[in-house]
Amino acid sequence: MKAKRHRLILELIEYKSIETQEELAEELARQGMEVTQATVSRDIKELGLVKIPAGGDVYRYAAAPEPKVTVTRDRIRRFFRDAVVNIDHSENLIVIKTLPGSAQGVASTIDTSGWPEVLGTVAGDDTILVVIKPKEMVETTIAKFRDLTR
User: Fold this and answer.
1) Which residue of 17, 90, 103, 130 has the lowest C-beta tally within 10 Å?
2) Domains plus CATH for the chain?
3) What is the sign, positive or negative, of the torsion defined by CA atoms of 86, 70, 121, 43?
């Protein structure tokens, strides 16, 4: 229920100018979701909503902008050189083995690299699953990853 309410709140503030917690509670009620002001207050905090200028002396709720993380090729290379142990694949999936405790950092650099063929990663303690699309890009991506380990 909470996740559904959070999605609805984000949708509402994207398309409507909502200035107060009371207005947000009213909009939620119009959508069939009765909530208290305390619940709305907690939701605003949990979602990290901010108030932005809406013209004049009016401020409205908005989702906080996501920080832009830039990853340089040198940073990616450093992570790969220091942590990657093995790279293998099957179909459109690449499995990268790392030193224990290093998978999250390596996966994060891959996720923020901006490579369009990388759909995403899933990382454990020492293993990363990289999903590639299209499948034809797997060999090229593996070559790119291996180049980073040198």
Assistant:
1) 90
2) 2-62 (1.10.10.10), 73-148 (3.30.1360.40)
3) positive
Task: Report the greatest alpha carbon distance in the chain.
Answer: 59
What is the per-residue pLDDT across 111-144, written as a single tens digit (0 to 9) for each? 888 889 999 999 999 999 999 999 999 999 999 9
What are the structure tokens assigned to 79, written together? 């992570």
Phi, psi of 122 (to 5 degrees): -130, 125
Q: Chain centroid to CA 54: how far?
A: 27
With the C-alpha atoms ordered 45, 124, 148, 99, is the resulting torsion angle positive or negative?
positive
Segment (H or E) for 6: helix 2-15
Residue 145 CA to residue 150 CA, distance in Å, equals: 9
Question: What is the Cβ-side half-sphere exposure of residue 51, based on CA atoms within 13 angstroms?
Answer: 10
Closest CA to 98 of 150, 141, 144, 149: 149
Ranges of residues in the chain whose predicted pLDDT is under 70: 67-70
> Which residues are CB-neighbours of 43 under 8 A, at least 6 positions away?
2, 5, 6, 9, 35
Distance in angstroms (rounded) separating the CA atoms of residues 61 and 118: 33
Length of the chain, please?
A: 150
Written as six digits, the tokens of 123 are 């990382």
